[in-house]
């Protein structure tokens, strides 16, 4: 019997192998009734080799949201090669409790936690499904033929053996917005019905196509884009013409994972990833003679006639032509990205743009033209001069409030003026023109101090320097707070900046510490306090003129008689107010602390208060109202978040917002609450019924935070949009008498036009008006924690972030007595 043992053993081994093979085959076919969930052991179906998986992939940065996707499963990055899109061609993202089923009737269906269908290829009658080793997920009929496959509806990536055919609407690649955001991006690759392979910039989030930036220039009904199994990608037509797109360059496809992708920057690139664990395991660009299309996106896309170009508006594109083949977007001097992660949103000035109410002499004093080398924005010309010299070209742009950039060509003595937004910017060695950017003059202290960091300081302490100190609290607490503030740091200025500031104080009077005046000096400067500019709870303001070389106009606030304890804090408050530096805050020039007299000396605001500006006989221009809104927001942002000691104003209203000769908004009366008598705060009680500018928490037994200023800003923002007071009880239509109520109703009904009725400029900018109203309604939320910070408010006003629909504050007065 012994001789027969080896044969019996071989028989057993053969049967064992056949059993293993059958088990593997059973796993390959996904049977009807199978399902996947985002979490747990059944979250994906693998291909036989395990190279690819189909199932739920968590969205980067959002652990509660999942894509239905195909990905490379053997690499740590789990790189996505396909993802499902809805009927509106938007990526499908679902919560963790969703489920994907291959139903008993052969329908693949993705359903949300409420059992509503989110996505389906709508191809019933499948007998089974299979994840192939090519990266293609297919539904098969009973006859073994494919009824649907992911290769037929690509997202932004194609894989070896995949083919894009001509004239099929779905046979396109659409880039993502950025690598971590799967929303439809700004570029599209299409195999057109005329047999042409074309790359288009897209007016995201629509499907509007701008002029093509690359085309194969071929014709033929049978054209197709082929990614063959050797790693070669080419476009072929019916007449046999072939156009190489990318090439694997002779590498062994068995040693690499391979994919090609229309990247977020609009370049179609081929990537390789080594399968060997000994190799350096990263996706790398396949470097060959033809490795990416187009070979320089910055140069290719600049010829289109609309859109921002390869990068966002007001930015410029440079291309690294080495093996990295990367696109770099940059902002010019004195500009910054709206969003550093989403650079396609473009750049904005970090200074206040030139007002068209600025005369030529003032413009020359405030702005200058600075060259930027090797950069060009070929579009956005609106005026051309010739013959002209470079100095004249500079001057003509500086004095023109529309002009943001001037371009001078010495060979033809020609000057072009360009206005914002600048588009299709690119950096190249062959730029033969002098490009000049308008920026604030380097000696303009206002611009130097305006761009502090907006980073929230987690360890800052919250001191209320506004009227809130008299809605509760004790004199002792006030004195302690004031004493702490006396030793505080300069607001919003870094240690390095402080050193620069201290060293420059001798040469720049605009940033000197407050000057000590005598009472006689101020009495003489105001002609014995003759001309009253205004009065309020904190005192009376008089117009004056200093006897200095500039005959500086001033506003002198004469503080009423103070309580004995409060007098001790006068110097503390002056110290605090005097150490704030921002272009949207009224500057304290000096003070008088002589005997029983307490006076504060401010810079004079030529155009008075917002109250006079907004509620006068003539309606101010829309652009000026927008400028004021942004200025007030930035001033409050500085007080709330850019000071080492937070300042809460607590009395934001039109009377406390002043306008300089350029109609730049400046916040006044911050930090004065401790200088008032306690009973003076009773002046606020008369506006409880109509709310005025006070946040609801003033009338509740809860703490006061910076959100009270946010609420007040919301009221003012509505007044700026609608050009009317919040409360106008004399209006015949009672529903319109309280602006905050009426604006909410108009917003909910989609009738923003009613709020700006008769205002042609605002109607022309109705989208911005709607955005401002939405921001205001967020600011007016009853619950303080629901209101945005001033940082978020400025971002929403600027359009840097999307604004979700604000909750309906159904009762503005529910909590008032």
From TrEMBL:
Keywords of the record: ATP-binding, Disulfide bond, EGF-like domain, Glycoprotein, Kinase, Lectin, Membrane, Nucleotide-binding, Receptor, Serine/threonine-protein kinase, Signal, Transferase, Transmembrane, Transmembrane helix
Stored CDD domains: PAN_AP_plant (cd01098)
Domain Bulb-type lectin: residue ranges: 21-152
Keyword Oxidoreductase: no
Origin: domain of life: Eukaryota
Enzyme class: transferase
Membrane topology: Single-pass type I membrane protein
Pfam families linked to this entry: B_lectin, Pkinase
Catalytic activity: L-seryl-[protein] + ATP = O-phospho-L-seryl-[protein] + ADP + H(+); L-threonyl-[protein] + ATP = O-phospho-L-threonyl-[protein] + ADP + H(+)
The protein's name in its UniProt record: Receptor-like serine/threonine-protein kinase
Organism: Triticum aestivum
């Amino acid at each position: 019997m012994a001789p027969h043992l080896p044969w019996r053993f071989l028989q057993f081994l053969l049967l064992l192998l056949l059993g293993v093979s059958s088990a593997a085959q059973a796993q390959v076919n996904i049977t009807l009734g199978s399902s996947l969930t985002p979490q747990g052991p059944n979250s994906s179906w693998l291909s036989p080799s395990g190279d690819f998986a189909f199932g739920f992939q968590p969205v980067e940065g959002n652990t509660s949201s999942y894509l239905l996707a195909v990905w490379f499963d053997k690499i740590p990055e789990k790189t996505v090669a396909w993802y499902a899109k809805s009927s509106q061609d938007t990526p499908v993202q679902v919560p963790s409790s969703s489920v994907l089923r291959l139903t008993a009737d052969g329908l693949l269906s993705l359903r949300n936690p409420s059992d509503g269908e989110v996505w389906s290829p709508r191809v019933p009658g499948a007998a089974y499904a299979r994840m192939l080793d090519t990266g293609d997920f297919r539904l098969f009929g009973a006859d073994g033929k494919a009824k649907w496959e992911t290769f037929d509806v690509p997202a932004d990536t194609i894989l070896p053996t995949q083919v894009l055919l001509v004239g099929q609407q779905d046979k396109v690649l659409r880039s993502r917005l950025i690598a971590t955001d799967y929303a439809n991006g700004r570029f599209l690759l299409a195999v057109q019905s005329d047999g042409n392979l074309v790359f288009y910039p897209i007016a995201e989030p629509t499907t509007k196509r701008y002029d093509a930036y690359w085309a194969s220039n071929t014709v033929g009904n049978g054209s197709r884009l082929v990614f063959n199994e050797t790693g070669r990608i080419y476009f072929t037509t019916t007449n046999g013409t072939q156009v190489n797109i990318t090439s694997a360059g002779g590498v062994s496809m068995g040693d690499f994972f391979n994919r090609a992708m229309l990247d977020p920057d609009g370049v179609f690139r081929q990537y390789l990833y080594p399968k060997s664990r000994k190799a350096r395991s990263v996706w790398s660009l396949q470097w060959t003679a033809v490795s990416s299309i187009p070979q320089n996106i910055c140069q290719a896309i600049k010829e289109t006639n609309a859109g921002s170009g390869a990068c966002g508006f007001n930015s410029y594109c440079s291309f690294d032509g080495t093996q990295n083949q990367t696109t770099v977007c940059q902002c010019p001097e004195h500009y910054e990205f709206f969003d550093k992660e989403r650079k396609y949103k473009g750049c904005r000035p970090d200074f206040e743009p030139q007002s068209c109410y600025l005369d030529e002499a003032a413009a020359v004093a405030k702005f200058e033209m600075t060259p930027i080398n090797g950069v060009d924005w070929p579009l956005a010309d609106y005026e051309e001069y010739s013959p002209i010299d470079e100095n004249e070209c500079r001057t003509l742009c500086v004095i023109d409030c529309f002009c943001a950039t001037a371009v001078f060509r010495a060979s033809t003595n020609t000057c072009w003026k360009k206005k914002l937004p600048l588009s299709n910017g690119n950096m190249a060695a062959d730029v033969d023109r002098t490009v000049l950017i308008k920026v604030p003059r380097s000696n303009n202290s206002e611009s130097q101090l305006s761009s502090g960091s907006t980073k929230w300081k987690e360890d800052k302490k919250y001191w209320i320097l506004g009227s809130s100190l008299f809605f509760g609290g004790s004199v002792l607490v006030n004195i302690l707070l004031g004493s702490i503030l006396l030793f505080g740091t300069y607001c919003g200025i870094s240690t390095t900046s402080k050193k620069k500031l201290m060293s420059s104080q001798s040469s720049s009077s605009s940033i000197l510490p407050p000057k000590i005046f005598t009472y006689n000096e101020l009495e003489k400067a105001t002609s014995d306090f003759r001309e009253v500019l205004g009065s309020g709870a904190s005192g009376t303001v008089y117009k004056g003129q200093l006897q200095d070389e500039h005959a500086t106009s001033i506003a002198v606030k004469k503080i009423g008689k103070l309580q004995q304890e409060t007098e001790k804090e006068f110097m503390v408050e002056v110290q605090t107010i005097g150490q704030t530096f921002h272009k949207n805050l009224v500057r304290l020039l000096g003070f008088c602390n002589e005997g029983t007299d307490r006076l504060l000396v401010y810079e004079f605001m030529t155009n008075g208060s917002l109250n006079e500006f907004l509620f006068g006989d003539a309606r101010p221009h829309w652009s000026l109202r927008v400028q004021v809104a942004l200025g007030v927001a930035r001033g409050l942002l500085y007080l709330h978040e850019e000071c080492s000691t937070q300042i809460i104003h607590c009395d934001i209203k039109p009377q406390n917002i002043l306008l300089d000769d350029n109609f730049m908004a400046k916040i006044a009366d911050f930090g004065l609450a401790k200088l008032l008598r306690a009973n003076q705060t009773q002046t606020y009680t008369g506006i409880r019924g109509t709310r005025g500018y006070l946040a609801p928490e003033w009338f509740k037994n809860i703490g006061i935070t910076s959100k009270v200023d946010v609420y007040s800003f919301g009221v003012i923002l509505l007044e700026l949009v609608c050009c009317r007071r919040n409360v106008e009880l004399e209006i015949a239509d009672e529903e319109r008498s309280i602006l905050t109520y009426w604006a909410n109703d108009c917003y909910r009904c989609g009738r923003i036009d009613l709020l700006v009725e008769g205002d042609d400029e605002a109607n022309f900018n109705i989208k911005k008006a709607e955005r401002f109203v939405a921001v205001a309604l967020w600011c007016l939320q009853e619950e303080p924690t629901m209101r945005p910070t001033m940082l978020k408010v400025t971002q929403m006003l600027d359009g840097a972030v999307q604004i979700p629909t604000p909750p309906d504050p159904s009762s503005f007065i529910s909590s008032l007595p």
